[in-house]
Amino acid sequence: GDQTEPVYAVNQFYQAPQVRSFFNSSTGYGTLGYGLPAAFGAKLGAPHRPSVCLIGDGGLQFSVQELASAVEAGIATAVVIWNNTSYGEIKAFMAERGIPQIGVDIFTPDFVGLAKALGCEASRPASLAELESELKASATRKVPTVIEIQAGSQLAKTLAA
Fold this sequence. Notes:
Elements: H1 5-13, H2 35-45, E1 52-56, H3 57-63, H4 66-73, E2 78-83, H5 88-96, H6 111-117, E3 121-123, H7 128-138, E4 145-150, H8 154-160
Parallel strand pairs: 1-2, 2-4, 3-4
């Protein structure tokens, strides 16, 4: 997990099924972008286990070029992007304290198109069933699978419920 709103929720509610099966960098020290190369490293360290990176749109832009390296190295990892077109946690913090929200609404590329251009599999699932299918398929592939979830989408609302 990278520094992104869903990872903060995972930290509070997720019980990992076994030791060394979940790690994240969301410690409050701004380690944006760490999740992607860490997930690739986890997959290289335990190639028999599935690897999933949960990362935000802002964090991914710190290390997105690593997708090309992972394609070249044949690292099959699911990369689940939470795309809210902002540094959402920082934006919420600023709003709660009446601070002008400057520099937190960011440009985000077409992540699915970008991932495909870099040689990855990529999708933007519309339902929980499609998300589950993509996650399962990612474990059988030889390259990263980028899965973009757009905040505000029906899938995002289902996941938040």
